[in-house]
Amino acid sequence: MAFATSQASVLNPWLQILAALEKKVIRQTFETWLKPTRYSHAAGRTLYVRVPTPEFQHIGDKYGDLIRKRSMASRWNLTTSVL
């Protein structure tokens, strides 16, 4: 499933980041670790992303470099929390 840019993704920066990451990681990695995440909110320069289980909380560490390389994502710091 490709994440297209839409009005919703303008309001949800995590969708923009996911669309970029989908092109940079193997499909299985994306489907397993990134697709189940959900945008929570933004505060200042911190982007809060909800994850389904504590095992997912490492995505900021594991994929942080890729997230920061995305031009739209370069201004965000990533924080995860369990749903």
3D architecture notes:
The protein is of the alpha+beta class and 83 residues long. It has a single domain, classed as GMP Synthetase, Chain A, domain 3 (2-Layer Sandwich). It is 41% helix and 22% strand. It contains four helices and three strands. A three-stranded mixed sheet has the order 1-2-3, with helices on one face. Strand 2, helix 4 and strand 3 form a beta-alpha-beta unit. The longest helix is centred in the last third of the chain and has 11 residues, at 59-69. The chain is globular and about 30 Å long. The mean pLDDT is 80.
Keywords:
alpha+beta, single chain
What is this structure's SSE topology?
Blueprint: H1 7-11, H2 13-22, H3 27-34, E1 38-43, E2 46-51, H4 59-69, E3 77-82
Range of helix content: 40-55%
Order of helices and strands: HHHEEHE
Which whole number gives the mean pLDDT? Answer: 80
Radius of gyration based on Cα positions: 12 Å
Assembly of the depicted chains: single chain
Low-confidence stretches: none
- Counted beta strands: 3
Q: How big a fraction of the residues is strand?
A: 15-25%
Which CATH top level class fits? Alpha Beta
Instruction: Provide the CATH superfamily.
Output: DnaA, N-terminal domain
